[in-house]
Amino acid sequence: MRNKKTLTLALALVFALNILLISVFQRAEAVTYQRGSAGSAVSQIQLRLKNWGYYGFSVNGLYNSRTETAVRAFQQRNSLRVNGLADSATLAKMGLPSSDIAASADADVKLLARLISAQAGDEPYRVQVAVGAVILNRLKHPSFPETLPGVIYQPGAFPCVRDGRFDRPLAESAVRAARDALLGVDPSGGALCYLGPDNAAGQAMSSKSPTIELGRYRFFT
Could you report the per-residue pLDDT of 44-101, keeping only the tens digit for each? Predict the structure, then answer.
């Protein structure tokens, strides 16, 4: 009888653990994009909305007010909760599988993290996020390319891309910093350029007063 009770308890624990794991994985797969989000996953959302006539602007990978308005219109037309968020229900209605969106987002994180790691991997975390924010701020500016790879690989923009640092192993903190920057965290104060001790992005800005100074870095609008 005692063995039977033990077996029953063990089976109950296994069942509860399976339910918990399923719940965790479901939450992990739930992706929501909102104003301030950026990257190729947002570009996919914009492209779908543009093709269906909800969005009449450039596909730039920036979840701005225009994108939010288009999402709201799409949600209203498709009897979804109208909140302007590209949540799991909205993405499913757009025909954008969570796996595809997650893959796009992961590619953006890795690319941005590689730049952050090469440029500021040894700097305090706040500086790393600020460097990532500069990249994303350039996406919003008409003087720079409209895609994340375009900004990062723009000829002469970032010395680390051509001097070998870009291909070094990633700093773990840079991955977290990239995620924060892609979510809209911007310690740089909207900067488009910066100067660091050993590297720079936009040396022409060095003659202007910095927007903010973080550690050994100066950031310029």
Answer: 899 899 999 999 988 888 888 999 999 999 999 999 999 999 998 999 999 987 777 7
pLDDT in tens, 170-194: 888 999 999 899 888 899 989 998 8
Helix, strand or coil, per DSSP, at residue 195? strand
User: pLDDT tens for residues 126-164?
Assistant: 999 999 999 999 988 888 887 888 899 998 888 888 888
How many Å apart are CA 132 and CA 198, to the nearest integer?
17
d(CA 70, CA 88): 16
Residue from 66, 103, 104, 73 nearest 90 by CA: 73
Q: DSSP labels for 11-79?
A: HHHHHHHHHHHHHHHHHHH---B-TT-BSHHHHHHHHHHHHTTS--S---SB--HHHHHHHHHHHHHTT
What backbone torsions phi and psi does residue 23 show, to the nearest 5 degrees? Answer: -65, -40
First vs last C-alpha separation in the chain: 75
Could you give the C-alpha distances from 106 to 84, 179, 211, in angstroms and in order? 23, 9, 30
Residue 208 CB neighbour total at 10 angstroms: 12
Is residue 45 within 8 A of residue 153, CB to CB? The reply is: no
Cα 24 to Cα 12: distance, rounded to the nearest angstrom: 18
- Output the six-digit token pair for 177: 């910093």
